[in-house]
Specification:
This protein is α/β, with parallel strands linked by helices. The chain has three domains: 2-125 and 167-189, HUPs (Rossmann fold, 3-Layer(aba) Sandwich), CATH 3.40.50.620; 214-275, Roll (SH3 type barrels), CATH 2.30.30; 277-363, Translation factors (Elongation Factor Tu (Ef-tu), domain 3). 25% of the residues lie in helices and 29% in strands. It contains eight helices and 17 strands. It has a six-stranded antiparallel β-barrel. The chain has a five-stranded parallel β-sheet with strand order 3-2-1-4-7, with helices on both faces. Helix 2 links the parallel strand 2 (26-33) and strand 3 (68-72). Helix 1 (11-22) runs parallel beside helix 2, helix 1 crosses helix 7 (173-182) and helix 3 packs antiparallel against helix 4 (97-116). The protein is globular.
Length: 364
């Protein structure tokens, strides 16, 4: 196969490309330039897609003996990931930019261009297992549970997955680093990037305030209706948040307060006790089915609402119009917010299989 290897400049994508070469594929490496000012993004292990990363990716491609290119996707990344992130927070929702990047950049923009150029597949360093069963994609958790990225890939369609390769799915991070060292790849010990790549200092509230400005509102006790303080905008909060609320007076019962809900129109942030965060029902829209098969009737499954953690046994059912998904959790989850994705898994000893995913619109 002709394979386009997306090379971020990190160890995972470098080893994934190396394995694609070793498997006998005709591999070309490409680094995605996602920032108009790439030199400003990396601070230690924070951020990604910098000039430094592009150079690391090129060096890895040289070691592997494959052609290498840099493609400028900065404008599209800004429009479809960064601006979407800002708009979602302004609307009182909590988006996952990594999921959005995989969906819109790596497996829409990049894959579309790759197919147009005659490539058969895009290869990435994601930790997830992907196979074909009876001609249908089967996306499952990786062997390394701590690095599993199937959640942020669960929004991909069956057609996209038919043109994807995830060579690291059966490996652990430790094994990948050791392999990189054996292959002479200089990125073997390079720190993983973390947090949000376009917010390298990790200060999401300041980033959003710089773009949205101050939008004053009130912090309100959800039980008593008492006004506890003022804030500069609902975009500075997420459901389940405890720290940084700016409330001086303690709760009457002495227990910590958490953000329970956000009301962007009125600018109200409602806070209360931790037990008020418990969610047992989820409604989600725009469902996607990685295998191409929608749910057929109520299905026992495992629901996941965060990239790492936030799982519970559940019963999920597609509503008659096919546009919404109703999920009843067998065990309550905390900190579930509109804008997040819910991914559904079928338990499997060899790695839970992704059934589908959708965007959370309401909880109960």
């Amino acid at each position: 196969m002709r394979v386009l290897a997306a090379m971020s400049g990190g160890v995972d994508s470098a080893v994934a490309a190396a394995r694609a070469v070793e498997a006998g594929h005709d591999v070309v490496g490409v680094h995605l330039a996602l920032s108009a000012k790439p030199g400003t993004l990396r601070t230690g292990a924070r951020g990604c897609c910098t000039v430094e990363d592009a150079r690391d990716a090129r060096r890895a491609a040289d070691v592997l003996g494959i052609p290498f290119y840099v493609w400028d996707f900065a404008e599209r990344f800004t429009e479809q990931v960064v601006e979407d992130f800002v708009a979602e927070y302004a609307a009182g929702r909590t988006p996952n930019p990594c999921l959005r990047c995989n969906e819109k950049i790596k497996f829409e923009a990049l894959l579309d261009k790759a197919l147009a150029l005659g490539f058969d597949a895009v290869c990435t360093g994601h930790y997830a297992r992907l196979s074909l069963v009876d001609g249908r994609p089967r996306l499952a958790r990786s062997a390394d549970e701590g690095k599993d990225q199937s959640y942020v890939l669960a929004s991909l369609t069956a057609e996209q997955l038919r043109h994807a390769l995830f060579p690291l799915g059966d490996s652990t991070k430790t094994e990948v680093r050791a392999e990189a060292a054996r292959r002479g790849l200089a990125v073997a010990e390079k720190p993983d990037s973390h947090d949000i790549c376009f917010i390298p200092d990790g200060d999401t509230r300041r980033f959003l305030t710089n773009r949205l400005g101050e939008r004053p509102g009130r912090l309100v006790d959800d039980t008593t209706g008492e006004v506890l303080g003022e804030h500069e905008g609902v975009h500075g909060f997420t459901v389940g948040q405890r720290k940084g609320l700016g409330i001086d007076q303690p709760a009457r019962d002495g227990r910590p307060r958490y953000v329970l809900s956000l009301e962007p129109v009125s600018g109200t942030v409602r806070v209360g006790a931790a037990d008020r965060l418990a969610v047992t029902g989820i409604v989600a829209s725009r469902p996607v089915w990685p295998s191409g098969l929608p749910l057929d009737g109520p299905v026992e499954c495992v629901a996941q609402v965060r990239a790492h953690g936030g799982t519970a046994p559940a019963v999920a059912e597609l509503e008659p119009d096919g546009a919404r998904l109703a999920v009843r959790l067998r065990e309550p989850l905390r900190g579930v917010a509109p804008g997040q994705a819910v991914a559904l898994y079928r338990p499997d000893p060899a790695g839970d299989v992704v059934l589908g995913s959708a965007t959370i619109t309401a909880t109960s």
